[in-house]
Give the backbone structure.
Amino acid sequence: MKYNWNWNVVLCRSECAQPYFDWILSGLGWTLVVSVMAWLIAFSVGSVVGVAKTAENRGLRLVAKGYVELFRNIPLLVQMFLWFYVVPELLPKVAGHFLKRELPLPEYWTAIVCLGLYHASRTAEQVRAGIEAIPRGQTLAALALGLTRGQVYRYVLLPVSYRIIVPPLTSDFMGIFKNSSVALTIGVLELTAQSRQIAEYTFNIFEIFTVATVLYMLVTLIVVTVMRYVEKKVRIPGTIAMGGS
Amino acid sequence: MIEIQDVSKWFGDFRVLSNCSTHVAKGEVVVICGPSGSGKSTLIKCINGLESFQEGVITVNGISVGAEGTNLPKLRASIGMVFQNFELFPHMTIAENVCLAQLKVLNRSRAEAEERAAQLLNRVGLSNQAAKHPAQLSGGQQQRVAIARALAMDPIAMLFDEPTSALDPEMINEVLDVMVALAQEGMTMMVVTHEMGFARKVADRVVFMDEGRIEEDARTEEFFGAPRGERAQMFLSKILSH
Amino acid sequence: MVGRFDFTVIFSNLDILWNGMLITLLLTVVAIVGGILLGTILALMRLSRFKLPAYAAGRFVDAFRATPLILVIFWFYFAVPIVTGRPIGGLYSVLIAFTLFESAYYCEIIRAGIQSIRLPQVHAGLALGLTRWQATRHVVLPQAFRNMVPLLLTQAIVLFQDTSLVYVVGLKDFLTAADLVATRDNRVVEMYLTAAVVYLVICSLGSLWVRRLQRQYAI
């Protein structure tokens, strides 16, 4: 194998043809921004859909089930294309025009919404599983005290459920973090996109992809460590660790 | 105060309750007993609308439980209920468990709620456990907290659904003592239990259920003196033989 | 609104789409078979009493699970030709990438499945005079795989969807084929919607089947 190793490429600022180091940093920044914002959507929409899946009302349950099936059974990349190319065409003229022409950074917003709604279907399943893991007696006891259904979810079911599902929610976030790379297909310049660009400019493939891989692993490590701490912090005293991985 | 008239309930094709009728007057203590699967727990949960029923009428203080438009949360807040498995909320401290519904349902101020909680925890002998979480307490202690939690709502009546059957034997009495004291103070109570000693001591009437029917409904001394039905006799001999 | 769209474009390009679907299926099948085989080996390594194989397998799995699939695809697409010194074609590098990537995920499913078998089962096997390997082969693995079937299949459905990512290196799978037609004939809305519906139908049927199996396997 003939290959010219040159680790300087990944540290380039003004010495190279392009400031590759800055590209990597900005890529990492966008990866984080897109992931965190998408997670916020996934968490809130997923919670609502997950709660709806446990609702008494059959219609509500059906809608929630439809949501999960729809978003789970279409590849993320296809959903990305649908949101970016198809939705603006199907919307009324004014809205479509806004999305295509007026909205600043349309590919970034699209990626955030798309990733968020896609992963909401997974979060919803976790939230539902968490709620269903709580014995029915808890709901009865809360109702017997005079709490309304909404209050039962707010004060009893959700607080316990979220604690149970910290580990799966963490791997959900890792999923969003990794899947944010799919956004490069609609032009989001996140970490993977920047590294490919640098690879194509410099042919120093091993160096740049190694750096990108290490960065992904590093963030994963940090998130996992933080979430372990969170899990311990919110653990209910007197119980042993709950939930799987 | 509690009137149950001709109540029937089906789970699919299976009839869990058949034309049940009984009543509890103010200040009265009624014990419901019967073999497992006889419908006692289902019946008691119908009283505060935790279970629905298809036929019949239940009224609490004149308010019909099954009727459309009944404010169920409000009705439930006025009836205390104690469950077989305690059902304290695991993520809250003991004090928070007793305060939650006072704050969210009765809209009491936090100070007021905490004061009432402290008073009731003291009464059930657990004032030094207020800051702990349920999983750190024994079963008997948890059940006493559950009673305090229900009493904090200043209920007009208390429902007990097998309050001692999930407890280790050595803890049963600490819970029964609280219940006896409550009964002697004049609380209206409906208690599903197999503790016949408790029934003899404080119950005004005993209701015997079997296969979804109320087979006997008699004054306590009559019930223990000479139960009329064969099934009740058999049940009593089984339960009292050990 | 429908008037603007012309869905007949699907029928005039059926052969292109079908050839794309064949590539998608090829990738899926190879990655499932290769991934489960390699994943089983990795899982046994991770659970091995020997430190070195356990460590090596652990780091391999962690690395792949922390890296986005697209980056893995790029790695192999760009790096394999350099390592081998000659171009091997996008298909082969992608096949390798998918097999290795999936093996990391299958490893974790299989490991959990093996760990779900209670130790007394192994002891019972050993007590009968089986060797450790025989006990693994005849007692543990058959039970473990039986428990794992639904999870393995669910992962296969995820994998089927993930193959669409080969779009980033221009390999002509089903989605890329649809995309080619979309841009060539200027029928973006029609082709992307069609692709979405095809994936949706196949994956929904797949998950329906998995759920049915789950009910059957539940003891």
Observations:
- The longest strand of chain B covers residues 14-24.
